[in-house]
Amino acid sequence: MTEHVIRYPDLTRPNAFTQEELGWVPWLEPKPESELTDEDYTALVERSRAASPYFRLLVRDPVVLGARTRADNDIFYNTDAGLARAERELSAATTSRTNGCLFCASVHSRFASLQAPSRRDDVQRLLDLGIDGDQDERWTAIIEAAAALTATPSAFGPAHVEALRAVGLDDQAVVDLIQSAAFFNWANRLMLSLGEPTPPTAA
Amino acid sequence: MTDLIDTLVGIDVGSPLDALRAKRPVARSDAQTTYDALITDPGDLARASAVERAAIAFWVAALSRAEQLAANYRGLLADLDPAVATSIDDALPDATTTGPYGTYPAGPLSAEDEAGLHFTASPALRDAVGTRLAAALEHAHLLTFRPRDASPDALQALLEAGWSTDGIVTVSQLVAFIHFQLRVITGLTVLKKAI
User: Fold this and answer.
1) What's the average model confidence in pLDDT over B11-16?
2) Of residues B16, B31, B164, nearest to A71 (C-beta)
3) Which of B63, B166, B186 is the closest to A149 by Cβ?
4) Residue B103 pLDDT greater than 60, yes or no
5) pLDDT grade, residue B40 (50/70/90)?
6) Quick check: A29 pLDDT over 70?
7) Domain extents for chain A?
């Protein structure tokens, strides 16, 4: 039987936001790799994800995982018009910073920096100082909109759309911002509640 | 094909928002696929029943003040079990707050720790919906307002209340997905008025 919680009493828990690569360990038993079915592999979308305890835990509900993964890819990697890749990652990092998901923030701040290498310090400022840290006008509008949408209840309103348009976002880009922030309100809650981050592994 | 997000935002075929959503066709169709898999047509009712699914969905949407979405889920729940719907109505006023808040692992982020409501089901709610659903509502409240407070103890409480590991994965997806769904609806509703 797999019906127990897994605890890590010896784990040194990361306690700050970072762009470094954190690990993640599950609090519930992932599905064993040897038991994965064809349907499970379809749900994983990429076969390599069978190595990930996070995805092998989520594959316990394969239809939902498959739909979630395909939506994720369309929101972040469909570059037919809309918001720049770096700014979709900025929206995801802002959402993760606001909800307090150290793991998601590490991944997506790193992705934002990879997409916009000259902005690495700006990304780090978001991690260090939070959403009130100083940014240029465009990133301020994006960060404030993503954070407002992340509040419960949502605080996103007409002024945010106006501010986004004023810094040059068209309506397709606004839709991308909404969907990337909304998606990380989904992802953060899974990552935060089904396991925990582990320190960066020595290179 | 019905699309709940289009219906609740009021997106007509051929409208500007319809064209904008059509540029992200997989996100659009898989948001509906997820909704169907979790709520309208779930494959496995043993891990989470139809009443449990609708009740948790109503609870999360109502706690988040996503009014139209909450009304949708309340309608589904009331068709299945009106008494549970009424019990959740009664529990909402004392459970509703603003988030996110919670506690970080001790260290530099401790300065950002923020206290807030830790919801526990009242005896009346527990009697009305049962120990198992009451535990899920407590967990859904945690995930809604203070997701960074999640812990192995919180999952242990679900196991002890009768949820399986598979059931916890599905409930977690349900709560987390609704937080996506309600924000897409909120965001697009605001954008619609600006177009």
Assistant:
1) 97
2) B31
3) B186
4) yes
5) very high
6) yes
7) 33-150, 158-194
Residue B24 is classified by DSSP as S
Q: Return the residue of B nearest to A71 by Cα.
A: B27
Enter the tokens of residue B96.
Answer: 């509703």
A194/B172 Cβ within 8 A: yes
pLDDT in tens, A66-85: 999 999 999 999 999 999 99
Q: What is the pLDDT of residue A201?
A: 77
Q: Which residue of B has its CA nearest to A127?
A: B109
CA of A82: which chain B residue's CA is closest?
A: B23
Q: What is the CATH number of the domain that holds B16?
A: 1.20.1290.10
Q: Taking CB atoms and an 8 Å limit, are A99 and B147 in contact across chains? A: yes
Q: CA dist A36 to A43, A49, B48, Å?
A: 10, 12, 22
Cβ burial, residue A75 (10 Å; 0-12/13-18/19+): buried
- Whether the per-residue pLDDT at B159 is higher than 80: the answer is yes
Chosen from B32, B146, B180 to mutate, greatest number of chain A CBs within 10 A: B180
ipTM of the predicted structure?
0.98
Q: Which two tokens stand for residue A178?
A: 């909404």
CA torsion B123→B126→B131→B135, rounded to 10°? -100
**What total number of domains does chain B contain?**
1
- How many other CB atoms are found less than 10 A from the CB of residue A202? 4
CB contact under 8 Å between A153 and B180, yes or no, is: no
Closest CA to A24 of A189, A203, A200: A200
Domain span at B60: 4-194
Please list every residue in chain A whose beta carbon sits closer than 8 Å to the beta carbon of residue B18.
Answer: none
